Amino acid sequence: MDIRKMGPHEAPPMELLLLADPSVPVIEGYIERGECYIALIEREIVGVSVLLPTRPGTAELINIAVVEHLHGQGIGKRLVQHAIATAKSQGYKTLEIGTGNSSLHQLSLYQKCGFRIIGVDRDYFIRHYPEAIFENGLQCIDMIRLAQDLIADSVCLPQIKMNQE
Ligand code: COA
Fold first, then answer.
1. Among 39, 118, 124, 125, which is disulfide-ready with 47 (CB 3.0 to 4.6 Å)?
2. 106 C-alpha to center of ligand 1: Å?
3. Cα–Cα distances in angstroms (integers) from residue 132 to residues 61, 68, 129, 139, in the given order
Protein backbone atom coordinates (compact mmCIF):
# COMPACT_ATOMS: atom_id res chain seq x y z
CA MET A 1 0.00 0.00 0.00
CA ASP A 2 1.23 3.52 -0.85
CA ILE A 3 0.23 6.77 0.80
CA ARG A 4 0.70 9.94 -1.18
CA LYS A 5 -0.38 13.58 -1.13
CA MET A 6 -3.13 14.47 -3.60
CA GLY A 7 -2.26 16.91 -6.35
CA PRO A 8 -4.04 20.31 -6.52
CA HIS A 9 -6.03 19.26 -9.60
CA GLU A 10 -7.13 15.84 -8.37
CA ALA A 11 -10.71 15.47 -7.10
CA PRO A 12 -10.75 14.43 -3.42
CA PRO A 13 -12.50 11.09 -2.69
CA MET A 14 -15.67 12.70 -1.33
CA GLU A 15 -17.55 9.46 -0.74
CA LEU A 16 -14.76 8.28 1.53
CA LEU A 17 -14.40 11.63 3.31
CA LEU A 18 -18.15 11.53 4.00
CA LEU A 19 -17.68 8.37 6.09
CA ALA A 20 -15.93 10.52 8.70
CA ASP A 21 -17.86 13.77 8.29
CA PRO A 22 -21.40 14.07 6.97
CA SER A 23 -21.14 17.62 5.57
CA VAL A 24 -19.89 18.26 2.01
CA PRO A 25 -19.52 22.06 2.52
CA VAL A 26 -17.56 21.53 5.74
CA ILE A 27 -15.26 19.00 4.03
CA GLU A 28 -14.76 21.29 1.03
CA GLY A 29 -13.82 24.11 3.41
CA TYR A 30 -11.04 22.23 5.17
CA ILE A 31 -9.80 20.35 2.08
CA GLU A 32 -8.98 23.72 0.56
CA ARG A 33 -6.97 24.83 3.60
CA GLY A 34 -5.40 21.47 4.38
CA GLU A 35 -3.42 18.66 2.78
CA CYS A 36 -5.22 15.56 1.57
CA TYR A 37 -3.43 12.18 1.53
CA ILE A 38 -4.69 9.03 -0.12
CA ALA A 39 -3.81 5.40 0.53
CA LEU A 40 -3.70 3.28 -2.62
CA ILE A 41 -3.64 -0.44 -3.26
CA GLU A 42 -3.04 -1.26 -6.92
CA ARG A 43 -4.20 2.24 -7.92
CA GLU A 44 -7.49 1.92 -6.02
CA ILE A 45 -8.06 4.56 -3.33
CA VAL A 46 -8.63 2.64 -0.08
CA GLY A 47 -8.14 5.40 2.49
CA VAL A 48 -7.88 9.13 2.99
CA SER A 49 -6.63 11.57 5.59
CA VAL A 50 -6.63 15.34 5.83
CA LEU A 51 -4.08 17.35 7.79
CA LEU A 52 -5.16 20.89 8.62
CA PRO A 53 -3.02 23.65 10.19
CA THR A 54 -5.12 25.13 13.00
CA ARG A 55 -2.90 27.32 15.21
CA PRO A 56 0.80 28.20 15.16
CA GLY A 57 2.69 24.93 15.69
CA THR A 58 -0.51 22.85 15.70
CA ALA A 59 -2.19 20.74 13.04
CA GLU A 60 -5.33 18.62 13.24
CA LEU A 61 -5.97 15.27 11.62
CA ILE A 62 -9.40 16.54 10.64
CA ASN A 63 -10.61 13.60 8.55
CA ILE A 64 -9.57 9.97 8.24
CA ALA A 65 -11.47 7.16 6.54
CA VAL A 66 -10.92 3.72 5.06
CA VAL A 67 -13.18 1.96 2.53
CA GLU A 68 -15.68 -0.09 4.50
CA HIS A 69 -14.81 -3.52 3.08
CA LEU A 70 -11.19 -3.08 4.25
CA HIS A 71 -11.86 -1.93 7.82
CA GLY A 72 -9.92 -3.71 10.55
CA GLN A 73 -6.90 -4.54 8.38
CA GLY A 74 -4.48 -1.92 9.64
CA ILE A 75 -4.99 0.74 6.93
CA GLY A 76 -6.39 3.30 9.39
CA LYS A 77 -3.45 2.80 11.72
CA ARG A 78 -1.01 3.26 8.80
CA LEU A 79 -2.78 6.51 7.84
CA VAL A 80 -2.64 7.83 11.42
CA GLN A 81 1.06 6.94 11.70
CA HIS A 82 1.70 8.61 8.33
CA ALA A 83 -0.10 11.78 9.49
CA ILE A 84 1.99 11.86 12.68
CA ALA A 85 5.24 11.46 10.71
CA THR A 86 4.16 14.09 8.15
CA ALA A 87 3.16 16.65 10.79
CA LYS A 88 6.45 16.02 12.61
CA SER A 89 8.49 16.44 9.41
CA GLN A 90 6.68 19.71 8.70
CA GLY A 91 7.76 21.08 12.08
CA TYR A 92 4.44 20.99 13.94
CA LYS A 93 4.75 20.67 17.70
CA THR A 94 1.29 19.25 18.31
CA LEU A 95 -1.12 17.07 16.36
CA GLU A 96 -4.75 17.06 17.45
CA ILE A 97 -7.76 14.92 16.62
CA GLY A 98 -11.38 14.90 17.73
CA THR A 99 -13.93 12.11 17.83
CA GLY A 100 -17.31 11.29 19.31
CA ASN A 101 -17.80 9.85 22.80
CA SER A 102 -19.51 6.86 21.12
CA SER A 103 -16.68 6.22 18.60
CA LEU A 104 -15.07 3.52 20.72
CA HIS A 105 -13.07 1.94 17.87
CA GLN A 106 -11.64 5.32 16.85
CA LEU A 107 -10.78 6.22 20.47
CA SER A 108 -8.91 2.94 20.75
CA LEU A 109 -7.04 3.50 17.48
CA TYR A 110 -5.96 7.06 18.32
CA GLN A 111 -4.75 6.15 21.81
CA LYS A 112 -2.82 3.18 20.41
CA CYS A 113 -1.12 5.66 18.07
CA GLY A 114 0.01 7.85 20.98
CA PHE A 115 -2.78 10.42 21.34
CA ARG A 116 -3.89 11.42 24.82
CA ILE A 117 -7.27 12.87 25.79
CA ILE A 118 -6.94 16.61 26.46
CA GLY A 119 -10.54 17.67 26.81
CA VAL A 120 -14.18 17.31 26.01
CA ASP A 121 -16.22 19.67 23.86
CA ARG A 122 -19.51 18.99 25.62
CA ASP A 123 -22.69 18.78 23.52
CA TYR A 124 -20.68 19.37 20.31
CA PHE A 125 -22.74 16.88 18.30
CA ILE A 126 -26.04 18.23 19.66
CA ARG A 127 -25.03 21.76 18.68
CA HIS A 128 -23.70 20.88 15.20
CA TYR A 129 -25.86 18.03 13.91
CA PRO A 130 -29.63 18.27 13.44
CA GLU A 131 -30.27 14.55 13.98
CA ALA A 132 -29.29 12.30 16.87
CA ILE A 133 -26.33 9.99 16.09
CA PHE A 134 -26.03 6.57 17.72
CA GLU A 135 -23.01 4.24 17.65
CA ASN A 136 -22.24 1.19 19.74
CA GLY A 137 -25.58 1.65 21.51
CA LEU A 138 -24.54 5.10 22.75
CA GLN A 139 -25.70 8.55 21.70
CA CYS A 140 -22.90 10.63 20.24
CA ILE A 141 -23.12 13.85 22.26
CA ASP A 142 -19.65 15.10 23.20
CA MET A 143 -16.50 15.50 21.16
CA ILE A 144 -13.46 13.95 22.81
CA ARG A 145 -10.38 16.01 21.97
CA LEU A 146 -7.03 14.22 21.80
CA ALA A 147 -3.53 15.49 21.12
CA GLN A 148 -0.02 14.24 20.66
CA ASP A 149 3.17 16.08 21.47
CA LEU A 150 5.38 15.69 18.40
CA ILE A 151 8.54 16.92 20.07
CA ALA A 152 8.82 14.62 23.07
CA ASP A 153 8.51 10.91 22.32
CA SER A 154 5.20 9.73 23.69
CA VAL A 155 5.49 8.16 27.12
CA CYS A 156 5.03 4.39 27.24
CA LEU A 157 3.60 3.60 30.65
CA PRO A 158 3.77 0.09 32.12
CA GLN A 159 0.51 -1.66 31.36
CA ILE A 160 -2.02 -2.74 33.95
CA LYS A 161 -4.41 -5.04 32.12
CA MET A 162 -8.03 -4.15 32.91
CA ASN A 163 -9.68 -6.17 30.16
CA GLN A 164 -8.91 -8.69 27.49
CA GLU A 165 -7.81 -6.88 24.31
N1 COA B 1 -13.70 -3.00 16.84
C2 COA B 1 -12.94 -2.37 17.76
N3 COA B 1 -11.73 -1.88 17.51
C4 COA B 1 -11.23 -2.03 16.28
C5 COA B 1 -11.95 -2.70 15.26
C6 COA B 1 -13.22 -3.19 15.58
N7 COA B 1 -13.98 -3.82 14.68
N8 COA B 1 -11.19 -2.67 14.14
C9 COA B 1 -10.07 -2.01 14.46
N10 COA B 1 -10.09 -1.64 15.75
C11 COA B 1 -9.12 -0.85 16.49
C12 COA B 1 -8.11 -1.74 17.02
O13 COA B 1 -7.75 -1.16 18.24
C14 COA B 1 -6.97 -1.61 16.03
O15 COA B 1 -5.77 -1.76 16.70
P16 COA B 1 -4.93 -3.13 16.59
O17 COA B 1 -4.43 -3.17 15.17
O18 COA B 1 -3.85 -2.93 17.59
O19 COA B 1 -5.89 -4.22 16.90
C20 COA B 1 -7.09 -0.17 15.56
O21 COA B 1 -8.48 0.11 15.65
C22 COA B 1 -6.61 0.07 14.15
O23 COA B 1 -7.38 -0.66 13.26
P24 COA B 1 -7.26 -0.43 11.70
O25 COA B 1 -7.55 -1.72 11.03
O26 COA B 1 -5.98 0.24 11.35
O27 COA B 1 -8.44 0.60 11.43
P28 COA B 1 -9.26 0.75 10.05
O29 COA B 1 -8.41 0.51 8.88
O30 COA B 1 -10.54 0.04 10.17
O31 COA B 1 -9.56 2.34 10.07
C32 COA B 1 -11.11 4.04 10.68
C33 COA B 1 -10.12 2.96 11.19
C34 COA B 1 -11.69 4.77 11.91
C35 COA B 1 -10.38 5.04 9.81
C36 COA B 1 -12.22 3.30 9.88
O37 COA B 1 -12.94 2.45 10.74
C38 COA B 1 -13.21 4.24 9.20
O39 COA B 1 -13.01 4.65 8.06
N40 COA B 1 -14.32 4.55 9.90
C41 COA B 1 -15.33 5.43 9.30
C42 COA B 1 -14.86 6.87 9.29
C43 COA B 1 -14.52 7.38 10.68
O44 COA B 1 -15.20 7.08 11.65
N45 COA B 1 -13.42 8.18 10.74
C46 COA B 1 -12.95 8.74 11.98
C47 COA B 1 -13.75 9.89 12.40
S48 COA B 1 -13.22 10.46 14.01
1. 39
2. 6
3. 24, 22, 7, 7
